[in-house]
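Sanity check

After download, print the first record. It should look like this:
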Amino acid sequence: MTARFTGKTVLVTGAGSGIGRAVALAFAAEGASVVGAGRTATALDETVALIEKEGGSAVAVTADVTRSEDVRALVRHTVERFGSLDVAVNNAGVFRGGAPIADLPEEDWRTMLDINVTGVLLSLQAEVAQMRQQPTGGAIVNIASNLGAHSRLPGLAGYLAGKAAVSALTRAAALDHIADGVRINAVSPGPSDTAMSLRPGETVADRAARMKSASPLGRVSSTAEVASAVLYLASPDAASIVGADLVIDGGAAA
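Expected structure tokens:
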């Protein structure tokens, strides 16, 4: 294991479970001080405990990314605690699906746009405002999806629209702020080893059997594999990568 992020401060939204937790653990393992944010304190505390068990440094901060005041306070707390904001991973998201457009509940549509799109916008605004003041700038990775800009399935209109917007927003923000020293990219996971990839009533074993034919790779991605892509894009190794959207889905959208 390298220490690419020793001395760096990393903020991860949606850090209480799944990909967000894996990303937080991976950054901490490479030396970063991690701020894990989300709406559920107990889940965030579990993530922090896992990091501290391995000798890492982390704090949990409850925040709602759909509230601009929450996100600004989150960034402010991060800088007050650790002195800078070097990397931000905007992972917080929600899935509401299973209905064609004509039957999509308005509440589900608004919830997905509020969290998956507006939440990323508000996070970007607060993060860039801090990073462009820093001599060293910063790096931001947004978590989009292979569903949306890269592939589509029926019955998922709200989720598809929101995640496609994240991909477009990432590119726009990257062009707007690379001159400020802020490098912005996205990772678009496909089915990964999280609860979100399980169909209603499906077990992990059922999913594994389904993925043998549903994915060219024949399996879901591990959360560690997705996290490794995030760390690469946030690292100096990717210094010339700006506005990319890296798909991690075992070839499903190829």
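If your output differs, re-run the checksum step. Summary of this record's structure: The domain at 9-246 is CATH 3.40.50.720 (Rossmann fold).
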